[in-house]
Structure formats: C-alpha cells, structure tokens
Amino acid sequence: MIRILLVDDQPLMRMGFRMILSAEPDFAIVGEASDGQLAVGLTKELEPDVILMDVRMPGTDGVEATRLIVQQRPQARVLILTTFDLDEYAFSGLQAGASGFLLKDVPPAELTAAIRAVASGDAVVSPRITRRLLDTFASSLNHGDAASDLQQDPRLAQLTQREHEVLEQVAAGLSNAEIAAALFVTEATVKTHITRTLSKLELRDRVQAVVFAYQQGIVRP
Length: 221
Hints:
Elements: E1 2-7, H1 11-22, E2 27-33, H2 36-46, E3 50-54, H3 62-72, E4 77-82, H4 88-96, E5 100-103, H5 108-119, H6 127-136, H7 146-149, H8 161-171, H9 176-183, H10 187-201, H11 206-215
C-alpha cells in the first residue's frame, strides 16, 4: 500500500482528492492537513510515503513544509500541487526537495500515475519541463563563476567523466533514449550511469539532478 498524506487549506480540495484516491486499491489516505505546520507533524507521526502538498497556504506554506519534511523524513516523496505550470512556488518547492509538481486540475489517471511513480522513486516532472521552470526563475538561483561553481560541491569529484556527461545531458532535459543516442551507448547503460550519479551526489531523482546542476553552474539558462 502507498500511504498518502493530503495537504491543502481548502477542505473541498482535500475531499476531491480523497474521493479519487480512495478508489485505488493500492492507496491508503493516512491523514489530512490544512497547513504546512500540521503537515510536518503528521508526516513524522504517520510516516506517509507520498505527500500531496499545496504550496500556497497561510502560515507555514508548502515550500517550507516540504523543506522540513525532506530533512526529517528523506524517504518521503512530496508532490507539489499548483495552479500554474510556471509557478515560482513550484520552483521553490523543487529547490526545497519536492520530487515534482502537478497542476490542481490534473486528470485523475495522471494523478494516480504520478503518485505511483514518485512512490517507486521516480520523478514526476520531466527534466525538460523542470528546466523550463528553472529557466523562468533562474534569477532566484545563486550563480558565481562557472569554473569555481563546478568545484563548489565536493561530491562532483566522485563522478567519472561519463557520469558527468550524463548529468549534463539530464540537466539539459534529454530523455534516456536521447542521451543514449548522443553518447552512442544503450539505454540500459544510461540508466546505470544515472543511478550511480544520483547515488554519488546523494540526490533522489532526476528532478533533483536538474536543480543541482543549475545550482552548481553545470548548466545555465
């Protein structure tokens, strides 16, 4: 069973999500929260696998709640709920450690598929869309000199040359098939490189890899 926590300050919105998700045999709604502070407490108490997190809430918003949840329970996956696909709150949520974001009017089938994807360790938002979002709000990222940025995080030194190339391709928004074609390797080899890269950089998914690459100056808008 995938344990889900619903977080939204609108009761009707939570009710709607609960009705949709309760119909799935592998989902269990373990709790609801009307604000970020309550969400952090319930995550610690209930240990959900996936948190559906509204970002625009009074008091502790979804961005700060996401940051605290990821720190306290790294294995939990946060899905940001937003009204606009290019939303600065969604951008901040990805920076805070969310595994992706969904529009609030997402079709039910896409919602359930997204929850299953993040629960299995995948990211929901494709790197290409993530890059588009980061390009839009790139001024919010701290960039220094590119040469020094590449040495900023010591974990980068653990990557092989090929793993570094794969990270650049992921950050550019390429799919596994596109990376395989560009580097003249198989998709299985690409998947292996990505898995090793994420492990060495202590990142959870491709979305976090794109954010990391921007923050380190590996790619730029």
